[in-house]
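Are you able to produce any protein sequence you like plus the matching backbone structure tokens because I've never seen that pairing?
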Amino acid sequence: MSTGFDLRLAPTAAAVWAATLVGLLAGWLAAVVAAAFALLVVPLVWRASRSRAWARATLVVVLLAGVAAAGMAVRGQHAEHHPVRQAAHHGERVTARVTLTSAPIPLRGPSFGAQRAQDRALVRAVLETAEVAGRHVRSGGAVVLLVPTEQWRDLIAGQRVTVRGKAAPPRSGELTIAALQVFGAPTDVAAPPGWQRAAADLREGLRRTTADELSPAAAGLLPGLVVGDTSALPPEVAQDFETAGLTHLMAVSGANLAIVCGTVLLVLHLIGAGPVLSVLGSGAALIGFVVLAGPEPSVLRAAAMGAVTLLALVLGRRRSALPVLSASVIGLLLLLPELATSAGFALSVAATAGLVVLAPAWTAALRDRGVPIGVAEAIAVPLAAHVVTAPLVAALSGTVSLVAVPANLLAGPVVAPATVFGVLATVVAPLSGWLAGAFCWLAAPELEWLALVADCAAAVPGGSFEWLPGTAGGLLLALPVVVGLIVLRRKRFRVLAAVAVLVVVLVLVPVRSAVSGWPAPGWSMVACDVGQGDGLVLSTGRPEEAVVVDTGPDLERSAACLERLGVRRIPLAVLTHLHADHVSGLTGLLGRFSVGAVAVGPLREPAWAMREVVRDARTHRVPVVPMQAGQRASWPGLVLDVLAPDPELARAQTAEDANDASIVLLATTPAGRLLLTGDIELPAQGGLVASGLDLRADVLKVPHHGSRYTTPRFLNAVRPRTALISVGDGNSYGHPSPFVVDVLTRAGAEVLRTDQEGDIAILPGPNGPRHVSRGDPLRAVDR
């Protein structure tokens, strides 16, 4: 039975991908073996190809796979034996002249201690010359630069600079020669090519115009839709998009290019342009968009995928779309072999395959059932893309989203007009600020709708659930997806599938939340599993209200914990000290909950963290209040006494003393006395013991994630029944210290760790506090 698609090039694309992976993951010697094997097989297949069709197809597969393997062998050998790579293995310092191939990209992700990820940026470059151990090297090759963001902020792709840094080996699976850790500003900075400067000016013009004309959420979204620039996107909005499965909208993808080129084709068709002019116009739009976004690998990948998408969805050439997609994969892998290990590349290929294989058929089926033209496409396109990429997303994230499909269905119709208006605003900004503002104003309703959809989808309880990560998890989800696509071709099975989906959404998800045992009724405190950081929640005795002590290292985990607990109001958020693993989640709370005030100690260091706390609080109109020893705050079910720090001592401290300047709280709750200690170390612990204060507590939040800098004298003064250690799984600090755990255990305390238990709730018990753990999201364990 014919499938209606030409699959002849698909095996060749798969073979080239596999050969490239061999070279990247197994090394250049393995690539040599693969190339030699292909060379031996070619004569055998050549003889058979004269009379058998299968042999001719096999010959193409073997030839191109051999070419890919040979290319990987040559490139891999060059990278492995490059003098700079050898210097990287020994951690030597290198002076290099490089040409930047990307602008500095601030690092994202959790920050720790006094450091924040955004202070460092990643820059990709091509090596021209280098000086290693007094020797000059003139040889090309890709390098990655880790640079200080502030000193490199204004550089763009195409500029030539001189850098000095420490060489380190690159990550596995790359042909990059080395990573250079640069701690200073570049020197001998050359001007970029004119077209790169023009493109950078256009992007800057778009950022300026959106900042002047749109709300913060919309101003951050529009550059993301147009050129993948999310630097101005509020963190809470970015988190909503990730939770809702809409992050792909803010990256340069084939969809962006298809929208732009499709619009150009439509306009040319309406004005009566012929086929040749239409093709030339759309090709010019494609090239212009690549120049505007920057000719980086991800953009080139998107250009190829966008061309395939246009072929299928705009020109209607369904049968030729798969060969073009396969040819694009082959060409891109031969040109940019690092794409073989790129999650973005795999997602692009899968999504494009879904668009050219599934979307046209589903669109036609919807039209046959009376769905209007346009609406059918708006439903079929995001649904097809999500279905085929779901296994990859599950493998990468370890979660399966139940809200991603409806969120994409609701967001899809406004993406195209918002993108088109954004591109127009970008193009006209240098000519007319008023006209650029008008285009931004036209895009504003669509952008606000996208933000609303993301916010509502992210707030759905049980909207996503945990899944087995990695290859095994992806294959586990791929099996039902493939089976479903096959069986749903019959009407009877489609009805059963619809019923099953309704059962899952309307019954199983609520029941799952209801029977999980979480949140534990009557909890007094919860230590949230926020990774390597602190995030504590104290019930005030009022419904849906709690005090928060520290917010963890990222935007999502502390907020998600509060949502699971049903908290809506936070009268007080206490930041024990200003290290990133205690304060970086504050923005996520301010954006989702009603917060009465943010309390900080007398030491306002590190200064960058204090600036960000004040900025974020001011944005949400939340006051920042001081907290120090001697203060008391009370609610119906909670009394907080501040035991430290002493303001006079804190004023004599510096940023290096931030741990010892932590706010220490004694919480009196229905579950007993809880001592919350931030990250205090030996000096502050000794000061508390010497102060004569009654430190006895039923529950101790162990200082500094159970670090070795904890004195047995302090632990003996507290004499806790239960010791909570908030710590990240597999952290690189060696927390918690076996010595500290042993001291607590020998003293009779039950030691609980968030890396082992998950969220931990403390509740009143007949003989003192008891606890309930949420280590397994499907089962709460009561002890």
